[in-house]
Design a protein that fits this description.
Elements lengths: L2 H37 L4 H36 L15 H6 L7 H11 L9
Helix pairs in contact: 1-2
Bound molecules: zinc ion (ZN).
Zinc ion binds next to α4.
């Protein structure tokens, strides 16, 4: 299989993953709204549990949102013909790495280098 066929396969994977993430996020937000509308009439203890569930749902939905953004960025790079190239050194990222991490922007070496640089510093958002 040549690289462009492999990219087509990755595009399908990411598009499907994106669809599932958005769907999950939508149902989580529905749950969240339901929880929040119940919240007011509850006793304190139950209220605290609701708050906890609320935080968990919020975190999950935030993680899903970030993944959707990464997928969007990867699909955009694919459209622009830049997908699969390391944004630091410009070399082709091996297909095995792309299969495992379809929205990575860097080869393993540069990714590790970047993590070493960031460690100890204030984490920066990657987007
Ligand atoms: Zn690189």
């Amino acid at each position: 299989m040549d690289r462009s066929a492999q990219f087509d396969e990755l595009r399908r994977m990411m598009t499907e993953r994106r669809r599932v993430l958005l769907q999950t996020r939508e149902s989580q937000q529905g749950e969240l709204r339901a929880l929040q509308s119940q919240d007011r009439s509850r006793e304190y203890e139950e209220g605290a549990q609701v708050k906890l569930a609320d935080d968990v749902l919020t975190t999950r939905s935030e993680t899903a949102r970030r993944e959707v953004l990464l997928i969007d960025a990867a699909l955009r790079r694919m459209d622009e013909g830049e997908y699969g190239e390391c944004m630091d050194c410009g070399q082709e990222i091996p297909i095995e790495r792309l299969r495992a991490l379809p929205f990575t922007f860097r080869c393993q070496e540069d990714e590790e280098e970047r993590e070493r640089t960031l460690r100890g510093n204030v984490p920066r958002p990657s987007l």
